């Protein structure tokens, strides 16, 4: 660094303690800088607390006027007489669509991650990883537009097929004939969206799996799949779990892709292929324009629940990652 | 040796197995593709996806059966794992390629100089024409203000975590930054709505949107900057401190310049990320058909929101405009990404090799 | 059980770089053959061609013939997986599977190759651990993770894992270089026992070790950095260390270079 020699001599306190890494700043410059950077950290913490506090405050305003049970009601009528709104349908829709997304995306993402890390020809692997990285950056509204104008018409045939052959399972029974603007399509679209996210994290973990354990398995006469089962998957298991949780967090909170695809309703239906249902984020987007101040507070109340849900999921993912770090550190 | 003879390996002593020829997987793939589409055609299925699924199932089952017969069970399992992994890859490529292709093909139809330089003033959904100039202005202003607010806080927090933080505060900040990364964008929008709009009584404006985008951007900046600062070798810091340079000057003059490439990359990726956010903008900026250069008062348009609103209008002309705007948005985000990664590659391996 | 290895005209490549050039030698059954030579001379690469592990490294490629008795390891119909089952390997750093117990580590190779009754498996695991001189130290904690053992014990666990599948040949790639002197001694004693049953090839940096454990010694060298490694000579260990036929060998052994 050619900048160091130009620095002026240290100020006149030659007997002072040397600058220590602990942040015991003695010079004004150090003090200001430490104050600024620590202040930023504290600002972030305060912000998190403020988010929780304000959402809770506005939600309290709404819920205290609510005549129906907020958790179990199937109504959304905060501006009506009587005031009734509940999140039961939103909980159901959010969880069901996220489960569908996870069931589809996680195995495929693990497969692609293995493909990139252990199967693809080397020439293909690096550009592929790059493209998947880029796809994770595509804005969700573009996925939403594609989902509504391309995927929905496309899945019409598949819905008919599922209804015809799997209709007896009840969940795949399609009672109407409308387009595929249903929770099942939402799940598939969410799967497509979180696929790059899960793949990227999982791939990173797989690439870190220690070569020496793979070689140990190879030297015992293991086939490629057996090597992966013996040394790559056990090593990457917690990575897969935390990647999936991150994907789940995305799926739970996704707004635009659901808002464009789903034709929402507050009527409960167990048939996945029937239009209807809703998710937290989608409901906020859909109801916002017609909401007065109280209606907005009601939407904020539902947003608080979504906030808590994603907080739990993400917190769990982080804890798993932290535990894994300790675990692999102890063995290194 | 009295050990149990292994069930499906050849007698010890022979290394040669019956093996499938090298073209076998390709041949099988072709055969099952033919079978899949043949049956699909016969059954009169319209969806090519179903044909593909059928072909994939034939491929996997066929591989298993034939390999078991020729090479044994273990090899069959290995080959099946290989084919499943390839099928996963193929399955993922289909929607992602379709997304890219559709956006480009349909966006190109309307994307031209006129589209980029005009607003939607005076147009309704029943006529073609119009453009996204007002939306581009809006997005640029909202993102710029968010960046101006998020980057200093993010940088300083990262510096605190890497250069100073050891205690409980640093641990708490690290954890909550991680958690904050996962906040759904609509929740960030609701927070600003509950404070700025509902509690402080401010009206919709581009700046309100910027506030929400700031919340989304800060944790991303902290995370990426932190990673980059950690890569700066400790020897550099020690060398500077040993010369009697105060710590804050060491950070400003030695640590940050060393990591600046990576930090820039991180900031650009964060910008790309928030530029595509729709939900908070929808709650706080509301959108508009007109050019509004002032981000501090009244509704403003924004590119992602424009896509959504044109889609909701539901006419062929508005769909065209939605695709055009989507293509513009994707190109903006992709260019940011590509440039950011190019910077990362160009500046990166200071320590490696 | 043990087999003779006959190598002729073998070259190995990393991409377009030729790492070892035109090596021919015979490894006698039921004996210990040591490979010595300066760093980068290709002795480890050569070792890894003997069980087709070299081609696992990206860009790795081999030309030439390796006959195991009367079968060419690189024959067109030969399955590399079967080769590695027949030719076991022990690595420089002990690498027991971290998620498996001691028992499961030893049984790992057997389980790949078919199903065994619990009783038979117990017998083989015990015999292999005894064969690796580890049984007495671990018999009470077979279900504990293998990563909890000391470095020397881990390496013996890896040897037990390798001999459990009854290979014909056992390759050892500097098996003691990560171990302390006492563990090294234990492994060297073990090698002496194992050669009753297996053909053993060991790469070592330590010339005293080569002199102590091996019956025959091969000396590898390279002309310059970037040039391919070559086999200089192979002979009875005693002759290599007392009266080698090539000057370079003597220079290396007497410590004049390398």
UniProtKB/TrEMBL annotation, chain A:
The keyword Membrane applies. It is a multi-pass membrane protein. PROSITE patterns: ABC_TM1 (PS50928). Residues 7-20 have a biased composition (Pro residues). Its main location: membrane. Part of the binding-protein-dependent transport system for phosphate; probably responsible for the translocation of the substrate across the membrane. The chain crosses the membrane at residues 41-63, 83-116, 128-155, 183-202, 251-273, 298-321. It holds the Pfam family BPD_transp_1. This is Phosphate transport system permease protein. CDD domains: TM_PBP2 (cd06261). It comes from the Bacteria. It is found in: Cell membrane. Residues 91-317 form the ABC transmembrane type-1 domain. Belongs to the binding-protein-dependent transport system permease family. CysTW subfamily. The keyword Ion transport does not apply. It comes from Streptomyces lycii. Residues 1-26 are annotated as: Disordered. Keywords: Cell membrane, Membrane, Phosphate transport, Transmembrane, Transmembrane helix, Transport.
Automatic annotation (TrEMBL), chain C:
Signal peptide: none annotated. SMART domains: AAA (SM00382). The keyword Cell division does not apply. Gene3D superfamilies: P-loop containing nucleotide triphosphate hydrolases (3.40.50.300). PROSITE patterns: ABC_TRANSPORTER_1, ABC_TRANSPORTER_2. One of its GO terms (molecular function) is ATP binding. This is Phosphate ABC transporter ATP-binding protein. It comes from Streptomyces lycii.
């Amino acid at each position: 660094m050619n900048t160091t020699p130009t620095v002026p001599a240290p100020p006149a306190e030659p007997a002072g303690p040397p600058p220590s890494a602990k942040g015991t700043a003695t010079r004004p410059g150090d003090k200001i800088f430490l104050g600024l950077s620590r202040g930023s950290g504290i600002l972030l913490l305060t912000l998190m607390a403020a988010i929780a506090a304000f959402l809770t405050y506005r939600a309290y305003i709404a819920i205290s006027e609510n005549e129906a049970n907020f958790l179990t009601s199937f109504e959304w009528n905060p501006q009506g007489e009587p005031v009734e709104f509940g999140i039961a349908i939103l909980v159901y829709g959010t969880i069901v669509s996220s489960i569908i997304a996870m069931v589809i995306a996680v195995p495929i993402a693990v497969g692609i991650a293995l493909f990139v890390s252990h199967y693809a020809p080397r020439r293909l692997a690096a550009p592929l990883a790059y493209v998947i990285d880029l796809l994770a950056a595509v804005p969700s509204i573009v996925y939403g537009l594609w989902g509504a104008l391309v995927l929905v018409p496309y899945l019409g045939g598949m819905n008919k097929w599922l209804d015809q052959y799997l209709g007896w399972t009840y969940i795949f029974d399609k009672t109407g004939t409308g387009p595929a603007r249903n929770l099942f399509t939402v799940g598939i679209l969410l799967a497509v969206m979180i696929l790059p996210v899960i793949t990227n994290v999982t791939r990173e973990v797989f690439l870190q799996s220690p070569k020496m354990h793979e070689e140990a398995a190879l030297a015992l006469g293991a086939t490629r799949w057996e090597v992966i089962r013996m040394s790559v998957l056990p090593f990457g298991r917690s990575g897969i779990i935390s990647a999936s949780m991150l994907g789940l967090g995305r799926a739970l909170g996704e707004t635009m892709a659901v808002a464009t695809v789903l034709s929402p309703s507050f009527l409960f239906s167990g048939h996945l292929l029937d239009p209807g249902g809703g998710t937290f984020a989608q409901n906020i987007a859909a109801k916002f324009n017609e909401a007065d101040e109280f209606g907005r507070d009601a939407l904020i109340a539902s947003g608080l629940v979504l906030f808590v849900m994603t907080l739990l999921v993400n917190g769990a993912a982080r804890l798993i990652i932290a535990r894994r770090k300790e675990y692999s550190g102890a063995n290194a | 040796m009295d050990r149990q003879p292994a069930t499906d390996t050849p007698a010890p002593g022979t290394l040669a197995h019956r093996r499938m020829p090298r073209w076998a997987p390709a041949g099988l793939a072709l055969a099952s593709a033919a079978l899949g589409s043949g049956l699909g055609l016969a059954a009169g299925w319209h969806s090519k996806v179903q044909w593909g699924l059928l072909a994939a199932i034939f491929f996997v089952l066929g591989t298993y059966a034939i390999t078991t017969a020729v090479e044994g069970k273990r090899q069959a399992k290995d080959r099946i794992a290989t084919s499943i992994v390839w099928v996963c890859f193929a399955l993922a490529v289909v929607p992602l390629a379709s997304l890219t292709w559709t956006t480009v093909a349909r966006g190109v139809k309307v994307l031209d100089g006129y589209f980029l330089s005009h607003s939607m003033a005076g147009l309704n959904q029943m006529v073609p024409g119009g453009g996204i100039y007002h939306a581009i202005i809006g997005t640029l202003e909202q993102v710029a203000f968010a960046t101006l607010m998020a980057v200093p806080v993010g940088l300083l927090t990262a510096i605190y975590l890497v250069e100073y933080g050891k205690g409980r505060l640093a641990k708490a900040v690290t954890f909550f930054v991680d958690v904050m990364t996962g906040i759904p964008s609509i929740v960030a929008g609701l927070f600003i709505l509950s404070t700025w709009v509902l509690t402080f009584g401010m009206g919709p404006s581009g700046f309100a949107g910027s506030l929400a985008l700031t919340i989304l951007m800060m944790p991303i900046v902290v995370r990426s900057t932190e990673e980059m600062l950690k890569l700066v070798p400790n020897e550099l810091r020690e060398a500077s401190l040993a010369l009697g340079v105060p710590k804050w000057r060491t950070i400003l003059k030695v640590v940050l310049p060393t990591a600046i490439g990576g930090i820039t990359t991180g900031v650009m990726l964060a910008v790309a990320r928030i530029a595509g956010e729709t939900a908070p903008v929808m709650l706080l900026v509301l959108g508009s058909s007109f050019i509004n250069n002032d981000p501090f008062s009244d509704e403003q348009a924004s590119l992602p929101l424009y896509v959504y609103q044109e889609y909701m209008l539901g006419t062929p002309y508005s769909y065209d405009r939605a695709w055009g705007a989507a293509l513009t948005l994707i190109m903006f985000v992709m260019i940011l990404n590509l440039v950011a990664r190019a910077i990362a590659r160009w500046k990166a391996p200071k320590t490696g090799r | 059980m043990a087999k003779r290895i006959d190598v002729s005209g073998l070259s190995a490549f990393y991409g377009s770089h030729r790492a070892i050039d035109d090596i021919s030698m015979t490894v006698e059954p039921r004996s210990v053959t040591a490979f010595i030579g300066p760093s980068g001379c290709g002795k480890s690469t050569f070792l890894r061609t003997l069980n087709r592990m070299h081609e696992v490294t990206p860009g790795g490629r081999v030309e030439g013939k390796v006959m195991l008795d009367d079968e060419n390891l690189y024959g067109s119909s030969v399955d590399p997986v079967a080769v590695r089952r027949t030719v076991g390997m022990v690595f420089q750093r002990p690498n027991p599977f971290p998620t498996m117990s001691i028992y499961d580590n030893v049984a790992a190779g057997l389980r790949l190759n078919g199903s065994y009754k619990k009783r038979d498996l117990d017998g083989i695991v015990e015999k292999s651990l005894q064969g690796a001189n580890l049984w007495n130290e671990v018999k009470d904690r077979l279900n504990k993770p293998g990563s909890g053992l000391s470095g020397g014990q881990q390496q013996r666990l890896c040897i037990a894992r390798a001999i459990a599948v009854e290979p014909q040949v056992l390759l050892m790639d500097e098996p003691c270089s990560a171990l302390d002197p006492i563990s090294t001694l234990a492994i060297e004693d073990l090698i002496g026992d194992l050669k009753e049953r297996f053909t053993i090839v060991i790469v070592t940096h330590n010339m005293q070790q080569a002199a102590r454990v091996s019956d025959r010694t091969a000396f590898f060298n390279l002309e310059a950095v970037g040039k391919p490694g070559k086999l200089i000579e192979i002979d009875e260990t005693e002759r290599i260390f007392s009266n080698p036929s090539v000057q370079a060998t003597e220079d290396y052994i007497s410590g004049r270079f390398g």
